[in-house]
Amino acid sequence: MSRCCCGVICSWFARSDLKKPSNETLLFTHIFFSLFAVSFFTLDIKPTPLTLSLCEWKLVAFVSFLTFATVQFLVALIAKSEAMIGDCAAMAVDVMTYGFNLVAERKKHEDYESALVLETLDIDLSATSSGGENNTAAHEVGRVQLERHLQSKRRQLHLELVPPVMSVSFLLIVTGFVLHESIHTLMLDSHRNETEQSNPNLVLMMIFSSLNLLMDVINVMCFARAKHLMGYNTEEKKKKGFQQYNVIDNSDGLIKYAFDDAVEVNNAEHNDDSSKANTFNEGVLSEENEEDDRVNLNMCSAYTHVFADTLRSIAVIFASVIAETVDSVTSEVADSTAAVIVSLIIMMSLLPLFRGIVRTWCELRSLSAEEQTLSDNDKHQLEVEMN
Known about the structure:
- One of its GO terms (cellular component) is membrane.
- This protein is mostly helical.
- The protein has one domain (2-236, 294-386).
- It is built from 10 helices and 3 strands, in the order ααααααββαβααα.
- A 3-stranded antiparallel sheet has the order 2-1-3.
- Strand 1 (245-249) and strand 2 (255-259) form a beta hairpin.
- The N and C termini lie far apart (61 Å).
């Protein structure tokens, strides 16, 4: 957040006739927003055993990007590099994304743990029922758990959707601004002498871009350690704990919600009615211990930012080398060209995120349809009981 604000301020005043703010003012602004960001995102972050490895690498990414971008922002002011300032602004969005993703993943696992506790209580309640009460208890437990599971799933999808959408929005705004300023610089440089152009410090650009590249490699290793390389749950398996329950169309027209073991007990007690066996219409939200190949949108979002930052660092390094070795290319032209390339790379790297966002949105719509079906079934059951 701090780097985003300061990066935009610097880029704005770099090509403006307005009075430029002092370096002290920019530094104060940056430090203020940095402290705010750290306090907001790391407050009450207490990793649990379920989230330890996940929080480990996200905290590494959050702290490393925040620290490095703070130093790079100060160096960018000294080097007068448009590309480095744009990179700082993009890294600000990266840090904000890591912070939101860290909180979102923690909330998702908290929901899961709460659901396990509630499920245990429901199963105990169902087990204490006997005789004719067993079917009613199984019905009520199944219905309540189905409602809870749908609500938990909706919240999980919201937590996976909102942070990436905010990240993409901020990143597009900052990138568009930097791209506009860089193109404007290139157009001006095509009509003015080299003496009228600024002279970014190429040595500082190469040094900090190389260090940034090393930091990106470390963060990618953290992804691999957390088994979320490329943003996918490549080796993570679905969590166990939720019992499988189904929507059952009973012969009397009532809609039943029951666990599989409850259905088996019911069939055992009514062997003489086997010809009227219940038909399973739909299995809803069954959690099995199988490999999960679904994209974790928060992971995909975070990895996209690391990947884009890696390409940005490479682009700045190449631009610095070309400006040093080719006499016909001035420092400002190389710097602005690198900023344009960096901006285009950022926009292209967002394509997988757009795809994931659309997919998550479709899942939310499908979930709404399931909830509507559940509501209609409850209304139908009430009408049957009244008749």
